[in-house]
């Protein structure tokens, strides 16, 4: 397996591919959760599994202020507010949602530029099939990305609060989607998860509900057959 | 592949197995939906796929008054009431639920006797691992069966109304379960499906929600990795 770190502007990323990958190997964009980064062990494990199981080429990048990228003063204020609220036993979903929304506005153009650069590589077909997978912060980013960029043709999302902005973005997403909803996440709330599922404009959409909070998505809940079914070779 | 029809008392059934099956091949009991039978093409297709994909031995039996089994006068009255209600545009979930409950009370002992007979075969290990899969009527039967018979160790259910009796049975089911919930089934209702999911006593449970009615469960919604993960060899 190839593991190739790259840098595009100020954005650090990693590409994983099979040694024998052809230019028709579908691209799977993998987002990391809030506070994590593109080299987080959970993400790396999922990326390597997708290469080995399905022959996909997988790409991850660090979100603004995550991984190797310095956190801005403004972002630090969001983080401080989150920690304060949590310590005081106050709800944090609103703060997380606003913070993630701000990060997502910055991250979407970075993902699009990454995709431009990937499609310009000789190892990648220009009209290669592209999927997106990622929970929490990555869903905040991915849902907006899928609403704006028709190159994304299938996606797995979950563990994200249904703000008005996100509901609006979801309504403009019409590709096949699989949504994960942890059923006992007091912060996110069941109603928010059901509303987000309802909002997607996709006719081919599935919601996977399972006990527990969004900090512990069981790997078995992600239906790994999904991208194999939807990404074209 | 072996396809062996059998008859046990007044109950007709079919067994599918790999030519090379050992006595440790897990058993998958497949129930048919209301109005269908053990040789319905959809069921046969799923059974053959499970044999070929996972090496399971699959067994299906006709429910009371279904397939080759004559319908009693009492059952005919349920069917007539259902048709009348549907033609009059009245809700039928209540009638279907009562009818299915009555059929299930009769069908559970038949499934248990079938399982006894299978375990007595030299081709089947006495403590073989057993799963159950089936929607609508088959779920009405299977949920009660799993609540009563500890030999069932994993199950896929769905498309069934959450009557008090069924909620009670579900609360006594603690094995891993995967539940399918068609999101736009006006007869069953979303609340009923969510209540049934909540009722299961299982810590390992997943709900798959998808657009459409229970008459058209997309095959892709059944996560075929489920039994491969949970049935012991």
UniProtKB/TrEMBL annotation, chains A, B:
Record keywords, A-Z: Hydrolase
Superkingdom of origin: Bacteria
A molecular-function term among this protein's GO annotations: hydrolase activity
Full protein name: Alpha/beta hydrolase
Annotated organism of origin: Humibacter ginsenosidimutans
